[in-house]
């Protein structure tokens, strides 16, 4: 009898903590029952916590509080190994040339938008999702760009090539699937020199697996420069208490021109 009473008391004591842990890990839902992606997120991270708590390393954007913490990757870091871009031979030579020249032809150095999926994967700046029953709005602090993504819609017939492309989305279970077309050829995909053509077609998959994390998968297809579809997997982490701030790109950035002049003068700055 005493054992039953003790078990009952223990259950009452543990229930609140269990329910609290469950609530913290549960996927927030919108009124229509779909996962709610609303919030401010950091790409290219797996660390939970506030922006300050999860960016304590010594790399660019880190506070330096914790030298052992992971370094935040910049938008110029390229995936390697099995995740490297499957470029056609002629295109691969162009990518390698850009890498050797230390990416001085980076479009963002001239204050141009980062494009996709680069804007999503950059971990140095937050991005904010605003979800409604009819559309998803994504605001990027990096380069101060945005996307308005209608749900259950078709691409318009008069799409003009643009930096962020034209996006439409639909839900597949708990995953938001975004189809993007209509790109210009003036951005990089993910890393130094990873150029593309106007034939680029991007498919994104956002799956909120718990309160703090969205699993992100992106597949890029470009028959003019890639030999096959290129898929990258990453994650976005919730950064409660973080707000987007104004991002101003210095329009009079003279460094690209200086580096180009050094190359013309025969100065060895390449890798």
Question: Quick gist of this model?
Answer:
With 271 residues, the protein is α+β, with helices and mostly antiparallel strands. It has four helices and nine strands. Strands 4-3-2-1-9-8-7-6-5 form a nine-stranded antiparallel β-sheet.
Give me the secondary-structure category: alpha+beta
Major beta sheet, strand line-up: 4-3-2-1-9-8-7-6-5
Annotation, overall tally of beta strands: 9
Strand content: 15-25%
Distance between termini? 77 Å
Helix percentage range: 10-25%
Describe the structure.
This protein has 271 residues and is an alpha+beta fold. It is built from 4 helices and 9 strands. It has a 9-stranded antiparallel sheet. A hairpin with a 4-residue loop joins β7 and β8. The longest helix has 24 residues, at 2-25. It is globular and about 60 Å long. The N and C termini lie far apart (77 Å). Residues 4-10 and 17-22 have low confidence and may be disordered.
